[in-house]
């Protein structure tokens, strides 16, 4: 049964070029946030925790070390069939690669997210969410405010389907506001006991449209697609995971070119209902034409659970 299930999901992933990010069923790691509010319903009780990255970005001329970035905290409250999830990043100072100059520039990113999900009869889930984001890159501050809805369904013992949409408004000082809809969808399988042994696999997708309000960078939002496949195996409370993520950013202005970022992440750690500690390593390659750079990141998450 396990082999047939795994082969089926691999086939779905290969044939479904539109599939995108982790949205159908939560990670076995309780500290990983969901992208679609409805998926919060399938969590295993109340939990609190956080995580942080450390890593480097390398090109042919230089190497930039990131001292602890993408730090975040998460709180999940699930007393009954209603689940509330709060997520926030802090001290998130990174470096962004500019393909035209082949140089790195510092930038700051912040994000806060609130998800509310209601589960019915253990089979369906409806979720609402709100998000705030900001990017400060070389003096250009982009601020996002958004809200969205989502729907999830559980089929049989462990098959999950979900879809959602976020309505985003972007504000840039002295420029016209931009609005667009982000679409997300996913399919996943999860079987077993999260306090002992468990299997999870998900293929998911998201799509952001192109929006043009002018002829300079501050007036555009580039179209972006993302595809993620995620495999997790918990054996006697020891977690093994592998995740592949491909992000494509499409050119909008005449001097731009399509850009692609491929990241592969492996994880290993300990997970039980009351406590989890997971270590991850991510290797990535980002390129635009002949220009490329490499990423190497390390991440640790720690979580505490309460039933």
Describe the protein:
- The chain has 307 residues and is mainly beta.
- It is built from one helix and 17 strands.
- It has a 14-stranded antiparallel β-barrel with strand order 1-2-3-5-6-7-8-9-10-13-14-15-16-17. Strands 11-12 form a two-stranded antiparallel ribbon.
- Strand 5 and strand 6 form a beta hairpin.
- The radius of gyration is 19 Å and the shape is globular.
- The two termini are 30 Å apart.
**Percent in helix:** under 10%
- Low-pLDDT stretches: 1-21
Strand content: over 45%
Shape: globular
The run of helices and strands is HEEEEEEEEEEEEEEEEE
Summarize the structure.
This protein is mainly β and 307 residues long. The protein is built from 1 helix and 17 strands.
Layout: helices, strands, pairs:
Blueprint: H1 2-15, E1 46-58, E2 63-77, E3 82-90, E4 93-98, E5 103-120, E6 124-137, E7 140-155, E8 159-171, E9 178-192, E10 198-208, E11 211-212, E12 220-221, E13 224-235, E14 238-249, E15 259-271, E16 275-288, E17 291-306
């Amino acid at each position: 049964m396990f082999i047939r299930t795994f082969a089926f999901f691999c086939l779905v992933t290969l044939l479904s070029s539109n599939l995108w990010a982790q949205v159908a069923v939560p990670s076995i790691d309780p500290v990983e946030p969901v992208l679609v509010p409805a998926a919060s319903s399938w969590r295993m009780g109340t939990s609190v925790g956080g995580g942080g990255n450390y890593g480097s970005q390398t090109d042919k001329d230089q190497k930039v070390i990131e001292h602890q970035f993408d730090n975040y905290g998460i709180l999940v409250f699930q007393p009954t069939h209603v689940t509330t999830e709060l997520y926030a990043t802090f001290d998130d100072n990174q470096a962004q690669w500019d393909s035209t100059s082949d140089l790195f520039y510092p930038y700051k990113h912040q994000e806060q997210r609130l998800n509310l999900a209601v589960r019915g009869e253990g089979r369906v889930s409806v979720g609402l969410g709100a998000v705030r984001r900001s990017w400060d890159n070389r003096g250009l501050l982009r601020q996002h405010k958004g809200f969205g809805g989502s729907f999830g369904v559980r089929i049989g013992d462990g098959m999950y389907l979900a879809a959602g949409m976020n309505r985003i408004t972007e504000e840039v000082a002295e420029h016209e506001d931009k609005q667009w809809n982000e679409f997300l969808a996913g399919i996943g399988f999860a079987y077993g006991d999260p306090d002992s042994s468990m299997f999870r696999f998900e293929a998911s997708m998201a799509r952001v449209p192109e929006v043009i309000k002018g002829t300079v960078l501050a007036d555009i939002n580039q179209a972006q697609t993302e595809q993620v496949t995620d495999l997790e195996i918990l054996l006697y409370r020891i977690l093994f995971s592998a995740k592949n993520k491909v992000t494509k950013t499409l050119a909008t202005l005449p001097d731009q070119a399509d850009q692609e970022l491929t990241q592969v992440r492996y994880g290993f750690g300990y997970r039980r209902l009351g406590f989890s500690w997971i270590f991850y390593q991510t290797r990535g390659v980002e390129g635009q034409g002949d220009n490329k750079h490499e990423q190497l990141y390390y991440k640790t998450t720690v979580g505490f659970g309460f039933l």
